[in-house]
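So, can you check this record?

>
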Amino acid sequence: MSYVIGIDLGTSAVKAIMVSRSGMVIDEASRVYPLYQEQPGYREQQPEDWFQGTMDAVSELIQKTGVQPEEVEGLSYSGQMHGLVLLDDRGEVLRPAIIWNDTRTSAECRDIEERLGERLLDVARNRALEGFTLPKLLWVKQHEPDIWQQAKVFLLPKDYVRYRMTGQLGLDLSDAAGTLLLNIVEQRWSEEIAEATGIPTTMLPPLVESSADTGTLMPHVAERMSLHERVRVFAGGADNACGAIGAGIIKPGTAMCSIGTSGVVLAYEERVDADYRGRLHYFNHSIPDGYYVMGVTLAAGYSMQWFRDVFASEMSFEELLAGIERVPPGAGGLLFTPYLAGERTPHADANIRASFIGLDSKHTRTQAARAVMEGVTFSLCESLDMLRDSGKVIQEVIAIGGGAKNEAWLQMQADIFGLDVVRLEREQGPAMGAAIIAAYGCGWFESMEEAVASFVKQAGRWHPDPERQLIYRGLYGIYKQIYQATKALNEYLAPYR
C-alpha cells in the first residue's frame, strides 16, 4: 500500500491526515498551540510550537494507523498565510512570528501606499492591509532595529516548518502572493516593491511551485516523526489555495465558502490579466499557472468561538447550536456584525468592531447564536456578491470548515447566497489539498485535475428556500447599512479600549 500525508498548519492547531491512493482518509491527528496577545491588535506565535506540534501529530498518525514508514511516499503542507518568521544567518528564529490577524501595522500600510501608489495594485494586485507580510517587515524594521539588523531571510509559517524538516529554504508562489512582494503575473519577486520599501532582495527566499519536490527529511526529523528519511517532501501552498484544491475549486463556475477562524469566499480565476484593483484578493493558485480571487471575513468561526467563550463556556458547540434550526430567519429581530477583529472584505478596516443590533430582554442564547451565524454569512455574501458583480457566473458553492459541519448553517448559506450549497464526502479542508499536492507530486496522477477528480467527492446538497430567501434579502439590505452607522462610534470609542 502507498500513502501520502497532508499537513495543515492552522491558526490554533496543526492537523495531519493520511490518505490512500484511492483518496480515502485513513486517520488524522492534531496538536494545538497557543496564541500570544501582549496588547490589543498584537497576535503572535512561537515557530518552535509549530515545528514540535507537527512532528508530534505526524508521529501519532503513524502510530494510530500502523502504516509502515516506507509505505508513506510523500507529504506536503498547507499553512496560515501572511505570517512573518525572521531568521538570522544561522537559520535561528529572531522573534515570535507575527501572524495573519495581527493589526499593528496600519502606519506601515499607509507608508507603503504613499511610496508605491497605484503601482502596488499593478504589480502585487492587492492593497496594503495589516495582515500582509510586507507591512510586518516594515514594522520590525521601524520598531525593532536590533532584530532587523540580524535578519537575513524571512519565511512564512508552513515554509519554516518545512525548512526545519528538510534544511531547504523556499517559499511557494501561492504563499508568496500574500506578502505584497510578489509580481503576481510574472511569478517572481518584485525588485521594484522591495527597493521602494527598503527590503533587501537578499531577504527574499527562493520561489518554488507548490508541487515542487523540496527534498527529503533530515534523519533526526524522520526518526522523530516515525517516517522513512526517503519520504518525498513537496512545497505545499497557502491555506486558501490548498483549501480550494481540497474542495475542487480548480476551474470556473464553482465558489468555495470556507468558515474557519476567518471566513473565505473564493473562486478560480482563469484570466491572467484580471485586475480587481484591490477590492478582492487576487493570488497565485497552488496549481501550475493558476490564480484565484477571494474575499475575507476576518472573524467568521472566531465569532462563534467568542460567543461560546463569553456566553456558554461550559457548552460544546453541538450543545450551543442545538435547536438552532427552529429559530426563524432574523433571530427574533437581532442582527450581528462580525467585526470582532476588524474587517477585510469589503471594508478593509482594521479598526471597526462588532455589534449586536436589536437586542432586547426576550432574546435567548439560541437566538443570539443564530444571529451570529447569520451575521457571518451576510459578511461572506458581500464577498460572493462582489465576485458575481465582476461578471463571474457562480453556479454552486462548496462549503468547507466549520460552516459545513452544521446542517442549519448549510441551509442558511443556501438561503442567503441564493445558490445551491454542497458538502463534501471527505471534507478535510486545506489538509486534503496538501495531500492532493503530495499525491500529484509523487506521480500518482498525470495532472492536478485528475488528482482532484479522484480525491474530491460531493456528499450532500442544500437548495435555497424561496420564503427564507426573501426574508434574508431584506435583512441583508439592512445589514449592509450597519457598517457606516457604527464606524463613527467605533472611531470615537477607540482611545478608550
Remarks:
- The first helix runs from residue 47 to 65.
- The chain is about 40% helix and 20% strand.
- The CA atoms of residues 422 and 461 lie 4 Å apart.
- The longest strand covers residues 13-20.
